[in-house]
Structure formats: structure tokens, C-alpha cells
Amino acid sequence: MSFTQHDPSRVIRAPRGTKLTAKSWATEAPLRMLMNNLDPEVAERPEDLVVYGGTGRAARSWEAYDAIIKTLTDLEEDETLLIQSGKPVGVFRTNKWAPRVLIANSNLVGDWATWPEFRKLEAEGLMMYGQMTAGSWIYIGTQGILQGTYETFAAIGAKRFGGTLANTLTLTGGCGGMGGAQPLAVTLNGGAVLIVDVSEERLRRRESKRYLDEVELDLDAALAKVAAAKNEGRALSVGYVGNAAEVFPELLRRQKAGTVAFDIITDQTSAHDPLSYLPVEYTLEQWDTEAKADADGFTKKAQASMAAHVEAMVGFQDIGAEVFDYGNSIRDEARQGGYNRAFEFPGFVPAYIRPLFCEGLGPFRWVALSGDPEDIRVTDEALKELFPENEHLHRWLNAAQEHVEFEGLPARICWLGYGDRAKAGVLFNKLVAEGKVSAPIVIGRDHLDSGSVASPYRETEAMKDGSDAIADWPLLNALTATSSGATWVSIHHGGGVGIGRSIHAGQVSVADGSELAAAKLQALLTNDPGMGVIRHVDAGYERAIEVAHERGVRIPMSE
Asked: Whole-prediction pTM value?
């Protein structure tokens, strides 16, 4: 069978309003969210079905996409659609509590879990790369990672700079769908930031949505602007068009010479996939052709460039900067490129985020299926009333209302912990039931969560008990979500860090105002973050043990 992955004539936009195109909101929701993932406002390359992350697709082919949409339109409330790496492969009669869609993307048996094997199968039309929220239909544009990025930079401010990033300067790379959250996250914490990307188009796109303040093509001019902002304690983000593998070493040279002063260094280029990282030997125009012509040779060149990139990052750490890996596996790629000090700076989870994970804290995102931004305003205000003492949440929601422009269907994200997510979900369902929002609300999360990932270079790096690579946890997470009333559930391999390096699970639910939805939301949004608590209890984290005891999470061998 021949599959079409490039079709510039296809322009997808999810339906709005209260009129169903499917048989129920439980099937209308995944239909609209799949379409929303491919909205040109949301996806990086929608004509190729690529949502973000280099090659993260929403469906394997346009033929598969059309079949998914048709099936969701006809699916009954007690049927379940199965998706294998972006292709619909079956429908079974289940029950109303079962998910309407079950998704598995990019999963390979251990010895075969390599990029060459994956690419071979992908070229044969047998698989696709689902990233995290691309192939699970809950990507909401750059906002989706914004609060997590905000929380990370806030933690750096608290750890090192007196609780704020004012009068600091950050250097980072990668301004695509995920990395594009970085400049706004830094400025919301009061800092100045220079972000480097090889693509002016990507930088301009982030600028147009106010994630980035301005774009500069001259390095000296860019540095003058961010240095002035740092000295004045003024928040400012500037994007510079260049290759980080060349720019980072040059800026390290200048810092050693005393002409610039960066305080924080990180990176979020698409380093997880070497074919999505541009080697210094090639221009932007040569990228796609050269990657396709010689994947192995391109990979070696990309890894060599990443080695230079990471060597510069280590150099900044050697002279006192705060340096961290932001979860794109660039350290291991640099190691493979011949740099033996690549792991001398930590990943962001063990450095800043793990204490939050111990409390089941993590991303909680929701989408207004109506398409009406007013529904998000109503939910924002309702959350403030629900959690009147949570000043951090209030500050975040106020900042998001002021600074975040919606991409595709209006959406919001915040971080909530064990117990609070269930309260929020039940509240949203009540808002639908009472007509305070005009249509049902979809509730989901990133796969990057407290108990949903096994990823030794990111979420589970440096676990206290050495259990970094144990993948039972995300599988248990998916099974728990399936048995707790999720509307759709996904298990993916490789998202964020690349083939062979992670297993992760996602879940999405629908608040449609019904009593059944309320029961499902109560169960799902209690048990899902509960996985984060028990995972960290099992690894021996004292805070997780305290949370389990305080909030009544049962741990059989602790009773």
C-alpha cells in the first residue's frame, strides 16, 4: 500500500461550536483534537502531518488520517478504536467506561529499538514517530510546555538568583514548537534571554505569537540588546538566526574575554533525532536533501556538531554558569560524537523538578471544544476560586491570560498535584453541566509527568534507587488510565529524547457535564497523578512518602 505523507493542499481546522459531527462528545473530542493538532496555527509542518519535534506526526499518512476521522464520526459510545503508530487497525465493542481510543506509537522491542531500524520501518509505511502529544492528539501549541518551562526557570531563580531571574542573562537554542516556550518562560521570570535557531521562519513565528520579543540577524546587535536588558533588570527575549554549534562556542570565547556575561545555559534543539539537528557543514536549504541522501553520514556530522555545542555548554559551567540539559538527549548525542565530558551537567528534572514530581505535581491542560476563548476565561477564574490560597497558581494564570495567545482551539495549562487535579476536573464538568461554558472541555496533559515516563536521560534520570530505566511504570500508568475512565490513552516510545531512550504514557478525558463523566474524572484524575506519588515512594523519596501518608495513597508494603 502506498501512503501519502506530503499534501500541501490539505488545510485542517477543527470544528467549533456545539453541533456534533460524531455520535457523542466522547468521540467528537478526539476527532476535534486530532484535527486541532494539524491546524496550521498549531502544527509545525501540517502538510506533512508533522506537529512538532522534527518528525512527530498526528497520523501515519493522509489515508490513515481520513480513516481515523471517518471511524470517529461513526464510533458508538461503547466501542473502542485501536491506533497502531498512526494507523487505525480495528474497532472493538467494549463498554462506556472503556476508552474510545487506544493508541500505541513508535514502540519497538528492545534489541530493535534503534533509529536505523525505526527509519527502515517508517520508510516501509509500518510506523511513525508520535513524539509525546503529537500522536496522542493533545498538543496545544507552544503553550503546552510553557508552564513546565516557567516552573523550571522559576526553580533556577529560587536556587541560585534570589528568587528571580531579573539581572540575569540566559543563553539557549531551539525555538520550535517546544523550545519556543523558553523565551517567554524566562521573561515571565524577569530575565533576559538570547535564543539561537537556524530558522528565521521559526523565530518569526514565535515572535508573531508573542513568545519572543524580537528577532535579530546581527550577533553584536543581539548581544547589545540582551546585555542592556540584563544590566537594567529588564525582561527581554531576542532570537538570533544561527547554528548553536557555532554560536555557543563563539559566545563562550567572548565570555572568557569579558565582553559578555551569560548566567544560565541550556538548549532545546531537536537533538533527540540527529536528522532534525543541522550540522555546521550544511545550510538550511541543504538540510532535508542531505539527511535523506545519507542518514548515517548526516547523523555522524550532526553528532560532531552536537559535541561542539555541548563542549561549549560545559565550558560555560566551568566558568560558573548554571547549565542544564533540557530533555532533548543532546548530551548522549554529543557523547556519541566523541565528547567525553557531555554528562558533566545535569538534566532539568533531577536538578529542579523532581521535588514537584514527588507530590504528583505536573502538567494539567484543558481545551475549549467550543472554540470560544470565553470558556477558557471562565475556567481560569473558576480555578482561582477553587484554590484561593494557591498564590503561585494565581500568578501563573494571570500571566497566561495577559501574555499567551491561543493557537488553534483555545486552551490552557497549569501544574496541579495529587488531589487538586481531580477537584479541577470535577469542577470543569460542573461548569459544563450548568451551562457556564458553552461546550464540553477536554482535559489532558503532557506525557512528561510525575509518573508516566521511563526516560533515563530526562524524567527518570538519577533516580534515588537507580531505577532510571525501568519501564514498568509508564505501562502501569497507561493501564491505570484505561481502567479509570480516560477517553483516550496512549503508550509511546522515544518522544522527546529519541528512539531507544524512553517509554511514556498519556491520557485524555472529556468533561461533558454528565454524571458518568464526573465519576470518570474523579477516578482518572486521582489515580493518574497518584502514579507519580507511588513511583517516587517506591524509589525512596521522603517527600513522596509524606505525601502518600498525608493524602491517603495506599502503598501495600508500607501498611
From this structure: 0.91
